[in-house]
Every structure is written in C-alpha cells, then in structure tokens.
Specification:
The complex is a heterotrimer of chains A (449), B (293) and C (282). With 449 residues, chain A is of the alpha/beta class. Chain A contains 20 helices and ten strands. Chain A has two domains: 11-153 and 317-376, D-Maltodextrin-Binding Protein, domain 2 (3-Layer(aba) Sandwich), CATH 3.40.190; 156-313 and 402-447, Periplasmic binding protein-like II (D-Maltodextrin-Binding Protein, domain 2), CATH 3.40.190. In chain A, strands 1, 2, 3, 4, 5 and 10 form a six-stranded mixed sheet that branches. In chain A, strand 1, helix 2 (45-61) and strand 2 (65-71) form a beta-alpha-beta unit. Chain B has a single domain, classed as MetI-like (MetI-like fold, Orthogonal Bundle). Chain B has a two-stranded antiparallel sheet. In chain B, a hairpin with a 6-residue loop joins strand 1 (41-43) and strand 2. Chain B is globular. Helix content of chain C is 71%, strand content 0%. In chain C, helix 4 runs antiparallel to helix 10 (185-213), helix 8 (158-169) crosses helix 10 and helix 10 packs across helix 14 (270-281). Classes of the chains: A alpha/beta (449), B mainly alpha (293), C mainly alpha (282). At the B-C interface, helix 1, helix 3, helix 4, helix 5 and helix 7 of B face helix 1, helix 4, helix 5, helix 6 and helix 8 of C.
Chain lengths: 449, 293, 282
C-alpha cells in the first residue's frame, strides 16, 4: 500500500546522489548538473501560468539552476504545508506566504533566511531604495532590512458598476470620494433597484479595520502596528473606528450596506450585478474583466473628510516570497539570482501587466507609466496611486501581528455580532481588541526566547 | 463470553495481534499521549522553541467565552439533529412498516444519503440556501424571512442542522424499521384486541419496545454530531458567523491552524477525549437501566 | 395492521413518496447545476430544469480539471479517493480479522489487556487527536502519501469487534472437527473460518469503503499537493478561492461524480451493508 510518488524528502536531499551521478554522466553527455530550487506557491489560473512562465524563462536563461514551482493550495494551505515540511525536514527553498503570515514567518529565526542576508552573501546587487517603500516597508525590519521578497501585492480599491450608476442617475465617471458620499450613492442605487445590496466589501477586517486605520493615519496597534516590536497592543477601538462600524451597522439594517462574508467568497455579488459597489482587492481585476457583463471602474478607497490626515496611504495585501532556512550556500546563490531576475525592470512590468498585481520597483512603475499602460486601464493604476499617495507614517507602513489568521477570525466574529445587532459597535470593538491582545501576548511569549 | 474450543500456540497470538497493536499504538496512543503532553506546552508554529507551562493552557481556555460557546453550540446542535432525524425517521419507518409491498423499494430509496460524504452534503445544502445564489433562498425571502446564514447565527445553525439531519435520517430509518419489524405481531394484536387505537398503541406499546433502538441511535447521533459534522460545518459556514456553528471539534481545528495555538488546541483535544469517554460511560451505565428489553 | 388497510396505506404511500422526493431534492439540484454555465448559477438565475452544458462540464471536470482553482482533473481525484477507500477497507479487514482470531481462539497472558487496548480506540475518532497525529505523520515523512492517508484511519476497533462477535457464534464443534482432522491453526483459519466469514467481511468492506471515501478532515490536513487530493476535498477547494470566483458548476459536477461510487456501493450491496451496520454497532 506504500506509495510515495515524490517523497517529501525530495528536493535538496536528493541533491548529493544526483549531482554525483550527473557529474559522472558529464563525461558521456553534456548533462546538466543543475541545482534544483523548489518554489511552493498558492497561485491558480492565469497567475499560475505567469509563475510557470517566469520559472521557465529563468531556467532557460542559465544552466546552473532550475526553479521548480509547485502549487500547494490556497494561502493558508501553502503556509501550513511549509511549516509542516520544515518540521519534518523537507521545506522548499522559496515559499509564497500571504501578508498576514508575515509575523509567524519573521519570528521563526533559523527557519527562514532573510532576503537582505541572502542577497549580500550571494554577492547579488541589491538596492533596497529601488523598491517602492509602501511595499517593501511591510516586509522589512524597522531598520529597513528586507526579510522577504515582495511578489504579488495588491491594495484595497472600490470597484463600481458604471451601468448601475447611470441607471440611478449618478455620474459613472465621478465615483464617490468620501464615505458619506458612498453611503449616499448606495442609498440611491438601492432605490434604483439594488434592494439587496447598495454597497459591500470582501475581506471584512482588511477593509474596515486594517486599511481604514492606515488610510486615515490612525494606529491599528502600538509599535507601528507591530512592525517595531512584538509587545504591540491593539488600539482600534477608538471613537473613530466605532463610528465607522456604527455607520455600517445602521446601513445593514435596510441593506444599504450588506455583509458578504469574511473572505472573498462574496466577490461574485459584484460581477453578478447584485452589489453595484464592492470594496475588495485590486487583484480582483482579472475576474471582473472576465465575468462582469457591464461597464466597470474602480476608485481609491473612500475616506472621512473630517479626519485631517486622510487620505494617507494604503497597506498592501497579497503575498511575498520567503526563503526557508537550513539550505546550502550554493542553493541560496541560485535563489538570489532568481530574485535578481524577478526584480529586473522589464520583467516587473511584464508581471504587472499579466497579473494586475503591482510592480515592486520604482523603475518598473515609471516604465509602465511611460509606456502609457495606464491610459487605457486606469483602474490598474488606482492601487499604485493609493500606495504612493503619501510617504508612509508609523500607522501606514504596514502591520505585523502574530497569528494574524486567528486574529482576523476573532475580529470578524465581533464585527459580525455588531452587524447582526447582537452587540453595540463599541462593545464589539472593545471585545475584539481585548481578545486580540490576549492572543498577541501569547504569541509574544513563543517568540522572545 | 468465552470459547471452550481453543488453539495451542505461544507465539502465534502475539504475531497475529502485532499489526493492529502496532498501528493502534503509533497512530492512536502515541498521538493521544502527545496531545496530553502538548497541552502543557506553549510552542511556536515551527517547533523551534517550547516552554512548559503546566495547566496554564487549560486555565486560559476556561476563561475564554468562545470555548463555552462552543460547548453550548455542540450541545444544542446535537439535540436538534437528534430530535429532527429520529422523529422524521421514526415516522417514515412506521409508514414503511405497514406491510406494504413496496417497503423494500422505499428502504433502498431512502437509505442512500448515508453514503454521501458529510462535506458533500454540506456543499449541496449551502448551494441550495446560499443567500445570493441559492434557489431556495428566494422563496424564503418572499415569505418575509431575511434569510442570511452569513450574518444570522440562528439561520446558520438551522442550515447546518438540516444538512446534518438529512444524512442521519437514512441511518435512523434503517434501525427503526428493523426495530419495528422485530416486534412480534402477537404483541400488537393483543393490544388491538384490548381495544387500543393505533395511535395509542404506538405510544404505549411500540415506542417503549423501541427504546433499545432509540437509545442506541441517540449515542450514535451524539458521536456523529461531535465529530462527523466537521465536514458539513466547514463546507457550509466555516464555523461562523460569530462562532454560531463552531462545535468543540471545529474549535480544536481552528485554534491549531497554522500553528496558532498548538497548546490550546491540544488542551481542547484532551478535554474532548474526556467528554466523549464520560458521555459514553454515562450513557451505557445510567440510561441502559431505563431501557426495557 | 388489524384495522382497515386501504386508507392507512394510501396515507403511508404518500408520506413515503414525499419523503423520497424531499430527500432526493438536494441531489437533483446538484445534477441540474452540473448542466449549466457558471454565469447562470452565479447570477442566481438557475432554473429547475437541466441546461445544455452537461457534456462540456463533465468532460472538462473529469479530464481537464477546473480552470481557476483545483487544477487536478476529477478523474485523478476519484482515483485517489478510490485508492484510499480500498486501502482503508482492505487494511482494516486484514488487521482486525487477525486480531479477532487471536483474541477469540487463543489463551495467552495479557489477552484481556490487549482486548481493552484495542477496544478503547472505538470511542475516540481521529478528529479528537488530529494535530498530534498530524505531527507524527509529518515526522514519519508520510505527508502527501497514500500510506499517510490510510494508516491512521485503520487504527480503530470496529473491525475487530465485528469479527469477534462473529467468531463467537461459530460453533466449537467446527474447531474440534478440524483438530481431529489434524489441521493446524492456519488450516482451520483458511479452510473453515474464512469462508464462513465472507459475509461479515463483505459487510465490513462496504462500511469501511464508504468511511474511507468520505473522509474529510484528515486528508484536508495532510495532503497539499494537487495530485494527492481526494475528490471530497477537491470539491471544498473549488469553493474557497482568493481573487477568483467560485466555480459552482464545476463544484456541482464534482459533487455528483463524488457521490456515485459510495451510493452505488450502498445500493448494490444493500443487504450486506445493512448487516454490517447492524452488527458493528451491537
């Protein structure tokens, strides 16, 4: 009954016998003594093809290394697989981890190899200044040392149905800029026929807690939202946050706002035409383009005009590439070369155009702009404009909380209770903060040793 | 019960037992012990460091309201599923028992949901009742119910209950039918002669005679709800909204995900083991006395 | 019954028929959904009658896999499910018939202890020890393997109990006769006991096959590779995606396909299945 197709101990463990055999064969034929680099990722569909394309291009461009991409499931599954594989001694070289897994990866000294170290040791040219600060700041230490390589980043944007706007007597080229305007538009859209949903959002905590805080330059937690220390404490139960949640609760009553779930499963309500306004990831672009049978556009996240610093800049979503620890120097060289390859300007522009995810270098952004890329597809520039709107502050460099997946679940639970009328928004946010802080303290104990 | 005729062999029995014992020890006792040990530790996700914390994980657990919520949810859920599946199954079994020629055919037609995976059953039900695209969601809204299992915890629990009961009715139906058919005709005839009407006959004579079956099914359903409904919950609600459909076992899974709280998850596993063993023991000792054979 | 039959029976027929229809409804809906395009479903416009996409949906699902998410063709996933289900069924029968034989027909020190060690596993399914079992399987290097999927699930005592009950009903005279013929233990087992046990084995096989096919939590945790997914997990994965729309039509097609083997097994082997159920639990 034993069947072990690949052998979880494959990859680098097979290297020694392989290279010996390969060297022996080198006499017989110009066989390649290639070092394999295992890359685990969570991309599907078109994005997966981009990954495969990149790997093939890299492999074809040189003979020493071979990048082997493997789809491991969605983000939590891939991260789970990585952790388990590490514990069993068979981790890949590169693993794509979503942004909320950053704290867990970062705290695992020895389990991961920081990118800045990797590049330095391999002698690859690496200038942190060349990268867009809003993107790399998320994945760097407070001293600016980059820990993981940003790969696919997105931001929250507001997608809207231009045809629905027209029908409701709203100008399709003038999307709402502020939250009060959004509420107003939503009411009109609801009156014009969208009676189950005036506006909605996916990723409930990302939009209504995390991005909300950054966009208005208010803290989500202390210590620069956790970037500067594990002893961070949550702080998002301020009157400002409570007011926003109260607005949502009030509007949920008659479905001017309608809750669509914790993650992205509700995104279909936009493309089906049910919800004319939907706040979600800019990465939703490929789906909207493919499935929406109406004219659409997107706009930057709305803000509250009475907050003096708004709009600030947004925090990224998406994922980055982490390098796992315990590998050989030769293999790390290959990884470093691959990362340089990925950062090349033309390549970045290519990735950006193909996936809708953001370019990570300033040069790539500039080049795409130069090429007039955003003229026909302005909605692809919206997330970039949000990210580069202003120089990031303490409150908008990013966030880093341990066990973020569970934290988001807890926060979503409390928000759901408020939306369903079971708790007042203030009680809900207070509880979210309190429960979250307990979890953060526990995480801190497992880290500082 | 012992057999009188036995075989001779000193080594053979151990060899025969070896495969099962080996697998049981490696995949049952060792993890169970590990669970107990892990519940006393505070670990990080990668297993790079661990700290012995004694009973702290348990103390933290009992201070968390979500844990009590999971207990309450599991209890309510089990009761609902038991009542729903058994009453429907009993009714259908009573109908099928009436010597109708087609009873066998009905048996075949009603039993197959048992073979459907709980996760698949969950997917089927959420498809029918999805607030946006479910075809049965529209009629519900027309009736004035603001059907929204994404936000309304009670709706979510109802949906999960129906999906779970859908599967269990098949199983209960089988056993009730067998139970009904094993009641001697003579007993029923005697009661009829005494002038008892069918309805009264059912409740005073047949139902008590079915008590071993009923008791047995209650045990089975409780275990089913405790564990097998995981697939249904994960497919339909993911434990939400606001933990309204998070059972004890779902909590174990959610808390341990991505190495979030391995110690706490292990503590919950241990408590769950204790609960199940206690429940089984109680059921067998106490209730069995009330059952008439 | 003793009273007039006609009205009672019409009532009974009606109730039963209604019951059958109601229970079949979810599956009917799934079959309909598998014959439509995703857009139709997503827009909430799915009618109660089949659409025209059946051939395309089934072909694509079985051989090509979902476009956006689970890239694995359902054909492969069904094969995985089949291997796992067979592995569990056959594995469990094998180890439990041996153990039951030892416990019933031999006397040896620790016999009672061995019995209880095995019996306790009845009460605690794998969900209760899920993460530690996962860690052990990971440490043994069995993640993403068939062995890892199968072995932990044959650790429970259902089979042993079943065979023990059955062996107890086998008359002692058969063993005596066999001894008198000069047959050893192995001969007795092979020539006498095994043939008698065939129905019990078949009944256990049916139940374990279904159990194995329908496993959810365990495969969910230990398989992450595309090509190791079982069909039940594949369905769930089709519906939880990020930055991609759920492919309901593919999910429903997969659900229909996933239901076929276990339901067939139950229907075709109904007698044995019922026998197995009844005997396992008593």
């Amino acid at each position: 009954m034993k069947k072990d197709p690949e052998g979880i101990k494959g990859g680098s463990y097979m290297l020694k016998p392989c290279t010996i055999v390969a060297a022996a064969l080198a006499f017989a034929s110009p066989a390649l003594a290639q070092t394999e680099i295992q890359w685990w990722h969570a991309q599907t569909g078109g994005n997966a093809e981009v990954i495969n394309g990149l790997s093939n291009e890299f492999n074809a461009s040189q003979k020493d290394y071979k990048v082997v991409p493997t789809y491991k499931g969605n983000y939590p599954d891939t991260m789970n697989a990585g952790i388990a594989a590490f514990r069993a001694g068979g981790a890949p070289h590169i693993i794509q981890v979503f942004e909320v897994g950053t704290a867990t990866m970062m705290s695992a000294k020895g389990a991961v190899k920081p990118v800045h170290e990797l590049m330095k040791e391999a002698g690859e040219k690496f200038d942190p200044q060349a990268y867009l600060p809003a993107i790399t700041g998320y994945y760097s230490t407070s001293k600016g040392e980059m820990l993981s390589m940003p790969f696919n980043s997105s931001s929250t944007v507001m997608w809207y149905n231009k045809d629905a706007f027209k029908k409701a007597g709203l100008d399709p080229d003038k999307p709402p800029k502020t939250w009060p305007e959004v509420f107003d538009y939503a009411k009109k859209l609801k009156a014009a026929g969208h009676d189950t949903c005036g506006f909605s959002n996916a990723w409930v905590t990302w939009v209504n807690v995390e991005q909300l805080s950054a966009w208005h330059n208010v803290p989500l937690g202390t210590k620069a939202n956790g970037l500067d220390g594990w002893d961070t404490e949550l702080k998002f139960n301020t009157p400002f946050h409570v007011r926003h949640l109260q607005n949502l609760v009030d509007l949920q009553k008659d479905k001017t706002y309608d809750y669509s779930g914790r993650t992205a499963t509700g995104e279909g309500r936009f493309t089906s035409g049910e919800c004319p306004i939907m706040l979600t990831s800019s990465g939703f672009f490929a789906n909207v383009k493919g499935n929406a049978k109406f004219a659409f556009g997107n706009a930057p996240m709305p803000y509250y005009p009475d907050q003096k610093d708004a709009p600030q800049n947004s925090i990224i979503g998406g994922a980055s590439l982490w390098v796992m620890g315990g590998k050989k120097a030769d293999e790390y060289k290959g990884v470093a070369k691959f990362f340089s390859f990925l950062s090349e300007t033309d390549r970045q522009v290519q990735i950006h155009k193909g996936t809708g995810y953001l370019p990570i270098t300033k040069a790539a952004y500039a080049k795409a702009k130069e090429q007039g890329f955003y003229k026909d597809q302005p909605y692809l520039e919206t997330p970039l404009l949000e990210l580069t709107n202003k120089e990031p502050t303490e409150n908008s460099r990013g966030l880093r909380f341990g066990n973020m997946v569970q934290l988001r679940d807890v926060w979503a639970e409390e928000i759901e209770q408020a939306l369903a009328g079971g708790k007042s928004p203030k009680d809900a946010l207070d509880a979210a903060v309190a429960r979250g802080n307990v979890m953060l303290r526990q995480f801190e104990r497992t880290v500082t040793r | 019960m012992e057999k009188h005729a036995i075989l001779n062999g000193k080594l053979i029995p151990y060899l025969l037992l070896a495969p099962q014992l080996l697998i049981t020890v490696i995949f049952f006792y060792w993890p169970a012990t590990q669970a107990i040990w892990q519940s006393f530790l505070l670990e990080d996700a990668f297993g790079l460091s661990s700290e012995f914390v004694g009973f702290e994980n348990y103390q933290v657990l009992f201070r968390r309201p979500e844990y009590y919520q999971a207990m309450a949810t599991t209890a309510v859920f089990a009761t609902l599923v038991a009542v729903l599946s058994m009453s429907i199954a009993l009714w259908l079994a009573a109908m099928a028992d009436k010597n109708i020629k087609a009873a066998g055919a009905y048996k075949t037609l009603l039993i197959w949901p048992y073979a459907v995976a709980p996760a698949v059953a969950g997917v089927l039900w959420i498809f029918m009742f999805h607030p946006s695209l479910g075809m049965l969601a529209r009629p519900l809204r027309l009736m004035g119910i603001d059907w929204n299992p994404l936000l309304n915890g009670r709706h979510a629990l109802v949906l999960v209950t129906f999906a779970s009961a859908w599967k269990e009715v098949a199983y209960c139906f089988l056993f009730f039918l067998a139970g009904l058919q094993s009641i001697p005709r003579s007993v029923i005839e005697a009661a009829a002669i005494d002038g008892a009407r069918p309805f009264r006959r059912f409740w005073t004579i047949i139902f008590p005679l079915l008590s071993p079956t009923t008791f047995f099914l209650v045990v089975v359903i409780v275990v089913y709800v405790f564990f097998d409904t995981f697939g249904i919950i994960d497919a339909v609600t993911g434990g939400g909204p606001a933990g309204a459909t998070t059972t004890l076992v779902y909590r174990v899974y959610a808390d341990g995900r991505l190495g979030g709280d391995l110690g706490g998850s292990a503590a919950q596993s241990v408590i769950l083991m204790v609960i199940v063993i206690a429940l089984t023991a109680i059921q067998f000792r106490y209730i069995e006395r009330k059952v008439q054979y | 019954m003793v009273e007039s039959r006609r009205y009672r029976n019409i009532g009974a027929y009606t109730v039963l028929s209604l019951g059958v229809l109601i229970f079949a409804f979810p599956v009917y809906v799934a079959i309909i959904a598998s014959t439509h395009e995703n857009a139709t479903i997503m827009n909430g416009n799915m009618p109660l009658l089949p659409g025209g996409q059946a051939a395309e949906n089934y072909y694509r699902t079985i051989f090509l896999g979902g476009v956006r998410s689970a890239r694995e063709p359902v054909g492969n996933m069904m094969l995985n499910s089949f291997i796992v289900a067979m592995g569990i069924a056959v594995g469990k029968i094998f180890i439990s018939i041996l153990s039951a034989f030892a416990i019933v027909y031999y006397r040896f020190p620790l016999r009672k202890a061995a019995f209880w060690v095995i019996f306790i596993t009845l009460m605690l399914p794998i969900e209760v020890r899920i993460y530690p079992t996962y860690k052990i399987v990971a440490d043994l290097g069995l993640l993403d393997t068939y062995t890892g999927l199968i072995l932990p699930l044959i650790a429970s005592a259902t089979g042993t109990l079943l065979f023990r009950q059955f062996f107890m009903t086998v008359p002692d005279e058969l063993l005596e006769a066999s001894k008198m013929d000069g047959a050893g233990a192995f001969r007795f087992f092979k020539d006498t006991l095994l043939p008698l046990s065939l129905t019990t084995m078949a009944a256990l096989f049916v139940i374990q096959f279904i159990y194995g096919w329908n496993q959810y939590l365990w495969p969910l945790l230990i398989t992450t590779r595309d090509d190791m997914q079982t069909v039940v997990i594949g369905i769930k994965k089709l519906l939880t995606t990020q930055d991609a729309l759920s492919e309901w039509h593919t999910a429903m097609t997969t659900a229909v396909l996933a239901m076929i083997p276990p339901v067939l097994v139950v229907l075709l082997m109904q007698r044995l299945f019922v026998k197995g159920l009844v005997e396992t639990e008593k």
